């Protein structure tokens, strides 16, 4: 299957959200409902479930199975009702789907024709993540449409506090703190990481759509290293000076913007930094509201698996993240 183009993403396609009752999935559902309230899209809340011991005796008849499905549907309805509180969205824009399958399988099947799939960053217990990996990573690897991963504030905060206190001499209790701007998260820009590839063009167009919807400025960021600077005229067999490489990177960004379909009047700022993409974009995630990247870059090795930058951001980004294929 060919990767989805921006045109096939369909701005009015569904937002398919993975829901399981966790705090993380609640945050993902709230985010999707807010976006749909702005765009008019439909939110499909999907609960992919499989039978477990805490559900009671396993159903042995069709009637018992039907009763269990009804209980699951009621649980899903309650979760969505709680998440929609205070959001001005029509009930016609909300769809509920319960599906007996693993969460990733259900979301991939139901979301195959959606605009994007939305999940919380952590939706599995620590033991499950150890053995099977996170749901967000699995979806980002396998999905052919954008996957948006919503970060819940203060993830692992208590453990980080414990580490800070353990490594501080004396008995003083220390709290782990990261530097952050005073600007509220919702007032910060949306950042898209690009490298000139076709995938990053799709990421740019998705980010522009998201920024336009939320009336947010868009920053197009290219983080480069000398090893990435190939094909510069006059330096085909040698390493270019830093200023020449910087100019080339700036040209790559301008050409990418010029060749992309972007909303008219959208404020766009370009940022070009001499730093590895992973480090640069993780740093950017501290100061923006949302990061968008392509699943693969220009590297030939990235053609067969999720790009290393995407993987770093799934684990380390401090804001919401969308992986575009």
Automatic annotation (TrEMBL):
UniProt-listed Pfam families: Usp
Superkingdom per UniProt: Bacteria
Occurrences of domain UspA (ranges): 15-151, 188-325
Family, per entry: Belongs to the universal stress protein A family.
Protein name, per record: Universal stress protein
Classification of source organism: Bacteria, Bacillati, Actinomycetota, Actinomycetes, Bifidobacteriales
């Amino acid at each position: 299957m060919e990767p989805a183009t921006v045109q096939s993403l369909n701005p009015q396609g569904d937002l398919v959200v993975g829901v399981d009752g966790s705090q993380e999935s609640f945050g993902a559902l709230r985010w999707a409902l807010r976006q749909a309230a702005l765009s008019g899209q439909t939110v499909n809340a999907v609960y992919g479930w499989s039978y477990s011991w805490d559900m009671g005796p396993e159903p042995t008849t069709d009637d018992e199975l039907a009763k269990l499905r009804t209980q699951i549907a009621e649980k899903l309805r309650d979760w969505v009702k709680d998440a929609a509180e205070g959001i001005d969205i029509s009930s016609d824009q909300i769809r509920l789907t319960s599906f007996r399958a693993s969460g990733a399988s259900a979301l991939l099947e139901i979301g195959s024709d959606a605009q994007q799939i939305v999940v919380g960053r952590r939706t599995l217990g620590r033991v499950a993540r150890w053995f099977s990996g996170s749901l967000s990573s699995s979806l980002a690897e396998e999905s052919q449409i954008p996957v948006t991963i919503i970060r819940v504030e203060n993830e692992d905060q208590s453990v980080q506090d414990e580490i800070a206190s353990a490594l501080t001499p004396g008995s003083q209790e220390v709290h782990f703190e990261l530097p952050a701007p005073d600007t509220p998260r919702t007032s910060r820009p949306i950042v898209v990481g690009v490298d000139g590839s076709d995938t990053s063009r799709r990421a740019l167009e998705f980010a522009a759509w998201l920024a336009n919807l939320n009336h947010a400025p868009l920053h197009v960021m290219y983080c480069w290293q000398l090893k990435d600077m190939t094909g510069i005229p006059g330096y085909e067999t040698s390493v270019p000076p830093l200023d020449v490489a910087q100019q080339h990177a700036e040209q790559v960004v301008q050409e990418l913007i010029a060749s992309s379909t972007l909303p008219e009047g959208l404020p766009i700022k370009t940022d070009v930094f001499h730093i590895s993409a992973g480090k640069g974009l993780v740093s950017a995630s501290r100061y923006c509201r949302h990061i968008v990247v392509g699943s693969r870059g220009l590297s030939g090795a990235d053609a067969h698996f999720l790009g290393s930058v995407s993987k770093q951001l799934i684990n380390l980004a401090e804001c919401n993240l969308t992986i575009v294929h």
